[in-house]
Amino acid sequence: MPLLIIFIIIPLIELAVILKVNSFIGIGWTLGLIVITAFVGVRLLRKQGISTLLRANQKMQQGQIPAQELAEGFLLALAGALLLTPGFVTDALGFTLLVPATRKALVHKVIAFITPRMMTASSFQATGSFQEGSFKDVHSHTDSQSSHEKITIEGEYTKDDK
C-alpha cells in the first residue's frame, strides 16, 4: 500500500512542479532542463559508480566484505533511477544521493536496515554436514523392521507424452 501511494503522489507532485516551472520559463526550456539534468546525472552516476565498483573490488581482493560499497552501489542505482525519471523533484533527490557526504550518511542506515534481515535469512541455512553412514542402507531389510517404516527408493524416470 505505501508503494501505491508513492507511485500516485510522486507523479502528481512532479506534474505540479513541471507546470509551475513551465509557467515561468516556457515549455522548451522546461523540457530542455529535464533532458539536461538526466544527461548530467547519468555522467556523474557513471563516474561515481565506477569508483565504488573499484573500491568494492579492492576490498574483495583483500579478503574483506565490501558491505559499505554494496550499500553505496544500491544508493547509486536508486540515484540513477531517480535521475532518469523525468521531473525536477526526482532529479533533486537523485542529485542528493550523488553527493558523497549524503550517501555516506545514508549508507549506515541502509546497512542497519538490511543486516537484521540478512541474519534472519541466514538462520534458515543448513548448518550440518554430511557424514558417511548417516543414511540408512535401503537394501539391508531385516524382518524386524516394521511395515509402516518409509523407504526411499532412488531411480530415474522419463515422461512420455505419446
Structure description:
The radius of gyration is 28 Å and the shape is extended. It has a domain at about 10-120. With about 160 residues, the chain is mainly α. Helix 3 (about 65-85) runs antiparallel to helix 4. The protein has helices spanning about 1-25, 25-60, 65-85, 90-100, 100-120.
Reported for the largest beta sheet, the result is: none
Q: Please tally the helical runs, counting DSSP H or I stretches of 4 or more residues.
A: 5
Calculate the mean pLDDT score and round it. 81
Compressed to H and E, one letter per element, the order equals: HHHHH
CA-based shape: extended
Beta strand %: under 5%
Q: Say what oligomer this is.
A: single chain
User: How far is it from the N-terminal to the C-terminal residue, by CA?
Assistant: 48 Å
Helix content: 55-70%
Outline the low-pLDDT stretches.
Answer: none
Radius of gyration: 28 Å
Number of strands: 0
Question: Class by helix and strand content?
Answer: mainly alpha
Task: List strands and helices in order, with pairings.
Layout: H1 2-25, H2 27-61, H3 67-84, H4 88-98, H5 100-122
Helix pairs in contact: 1-2, 2-3, 2-4, 3-4, 3-5
